[in-house]
Amino acid sequence: MVSAVDPDNIRVFGQMPNYTILNSSYVCSSISKLQRNGVFYSSNPLAFALPLLLIQMTLASAAILLTFFLVRPLGHPVMLAQILGGIIVGPSFLCRIPGLLNTIFPIRSFLLLDIVSTIGCMFYFFLIGVQTDISMLKKITRKTFAIGFFTMAVPMILTIGSSILWTHFYDPSSVKIDKLPAIAVTESVICFPIIAYYLSELRIINSEFGRVALCSSMVSTLCSLCVITSYLLWSQSGYDISLFFRAVCYVIAFAVLVCFILGPILLWEKKQILVGTPSKQGNIIVLFLAVLMSGFWGQGFGLNIYFGPLLFGLLIPSGPPLGSVLVEKLDLIIYWMLMPLYCVKFGLTVDIFALSIRTYSGVQLIALLGACGKFLGASISALGCQMSPSDAISLGFVMTFQGMLELSLFILMKTKRIIDGESFVAMCASLLITTGVITPMVRHFCNPSRRYVVYHGRTLMDSRPNSELRLLVCIHDQENVPSAISLLKALNPGKQSPIAVYMLHLIELTGSATPLFIPHKKTRKFSSRTSSSGPVINAFTNFEENHGGHVSIFPFISICPPQTMHDDVCAIALDKGISLAIIPFFKRFHFDGALQSSKRAMKIANQNVLDKAPCSVAILIDRGPLKTLSAIWTCWSSYEVAVIFLGGADDREALTLGARMAGLPNNKLTLIRILYDGNFPDNYMEGRRLDDEVLNDFRSNISGNYCAKYKEELVMDGAGTASVLRTLENQYELVVVGRRHDGLSPLLSGLREWNENRELGVIGDLLSSSDFLGDTTILVVQQHTDYSCGE
């Protein structure tokens, strides 16, 4: 095998102390020295190519993993850790150790290292294409187009104009005069996948701010792609207009070849999914082979090897079902095994200590101008589009993010000899500094949940008794539907008390970098990405039709990461004036009441909703056997409801919800007040007064209502409270309880230590355990107040 090693890389290695380089233009690696028997047969594994590659992959992944854990407390994402880890392993830091560079990264190993890392990078670009949602182009408005255009145009004008002027002040031996415009163009590029990646890492991708940033960055990326592609083709053609147009024709011909040859493969795979045939391993392998073929064709047309996989990935619809499967198959091995090897290969060519101050200052100045141009272009145009100052500043910072795609562009420019090696090192250092400084700033300035904090009074107690009750019902999967509809039916929808239900189907985002928020019309057909929402929406639509205009259903679909699901929940609650948001518990139970399974995504989303929702929140725990919807509508002879009242704001909210159920003849409501058999301290008297007022109103309202009754239970401690709750087993279909109670209350003494699910509170967690209440459905209510009780 013969590996042509870049002369610039040879120069970098030659400057390292004690690094051995052969005095020839190529390095020969014998096939017989690929692998050997091992140390027990007097054979050094590091003298053979395959064991050496394995130790290189191990060192690369371990170094990047360690770097990730070190920078994670500062809020930096894994992409920055990959680039930084690659530089740390290289001659800038770790490989300065005497003998390590010669032992682990001898120049004879670069053939296999380059091949494996290139294949990994091909699939990385393919994944970027898969995760890029081209349908975002339909969501571009005048506002986002203006922001995106100026975000690209301002830095391009600043950097190119300045580079032309500043070339007269630089020594050609440090920064070539014809290199500064290339550096200026490269530093002005904006990559949509990188912006989407960072927004996802910052957990703001599906906020209103995140959607504006995504659409704007899509416009900037398209403009940047036109500029950088034209510049590369122009420079590669030797600035000959005829050769330039020939190169453009090659690109168009290659794109047509990929679309018309590989496109039918995607149509066939999509047809298999639509008819219900699960994706088999062979189908996925065909797509992987198509990725390799697209890279081969790209090389055959004289284009970059990564262009074909990227274009092929863009043809695949992002998200479920196909995009999710591909990302699931490739994500771990690509990001944590092969891309670290690519980063280390790049890091071996970066020697920060060999960088001259003159070159670095010149390149850093251009890079700083590019970052400032992006910031000013985005923030000023955002202010002109009526965005708030804080959001405009945050958007300006977000648009300056750089990552792996920019690094690959730097490497491409260096390989094409458009920029020199020293400028390349300076640009890599600038990328790390700029992104490392900006990430904490964005985290500080951009917090979409702040706008939810200032809203108060979105509670059931503050809503008028005979007014329309606005509810937000969150559904994670079809199993949540029967219990949710059963609860809505118990809320007594009628002419005097109609309910408006905003149903939000929450789907975890996989296989896509772009979240979706879809206000779904009931007459609209479902796409492949929203097909799982069809049965859910149809069930709520049937519920609406069975209640003669007393129930209004407004369905929404949200496809987003678990860490940001609460943004869509809070946004709907805020915009629609929701009084109560109902979310399902993240754990499931067997029919016998034992714990079946849990979803971490639901747990994260539920906790964020509890912390940040601008309204009251209820967690619905369905422990009973799965009921069909027809059984819910036809077998409603009697529905026993109990409200457990210990005292506090959440219990008062739970009582208000229970009182609304008392108006339905088939509902039988029992209020059980648990009292301490002793004297409360004086600091509890104000809370007791409010509790007594609410209870007196309730008792007066149910006077003469034979379907509602009031009970009191006296207890001495937490054990007495648990005993009272145990007596309720299998007597009620629904038990409503407040989430938060004073942790120092004698009613809870000894119970707090056993609280496993803190999002349910002490009483809610006790009721949901396998020792209590059989198959009873439990509703844990939290009132939207500033009340804090130690939970």
From TrEMBL:
Annotated InterPro entries:
Cation/H_exchanger_TM (IPR006153), CHX17_2nd (IPR057291), CHX17_C (IPR057290), CPA2_transporter (IPR050794), Na+/solute_symporter_sf (IPR038770)
Cation/H(+) antiporter central domain: from which residue to which, for each copy? Answer: 500-624
Domain Cation/H(+) antiporter C-terminal: residue ranges: 639-785
Coiled coil located at which positions? none
Q: Where in the cell is it found?
A: Membrane
Q: Taking every annotated instance into account, which residue ranges of this chain make up the domain Cation/H+ exchanger transmembrane?
A: 63-442
Protein origin, superkingdom? Eukaryota
Membrane topology note: Multi-pass membrane protein
- One Pfam match, given by its short name, reads CHX17_2nd
- Can you supply a Gene Ontology BP term from the record? regulation of pH
**Where is it found, in Gene Ontology cellular component terms?**
endomembrane system; membrane
GO molecular-function annotation terms? antiporter activity
Keywords from UniProt, A to Z, are: Ion transport, Membrane, Potassium, Potassium transport, Transmembrane, Transmembrane helix, Transport
Family recorded in the similarity comment: Belongs to the monovalent cation:proton antiporter 2 (CPA2) transporter (TC 2.A.37) family. CHX (TC 2.A.37.4) subfamily.
Question: What is this protein's name?
Answer: Cation/H(+) antiporter 15-like
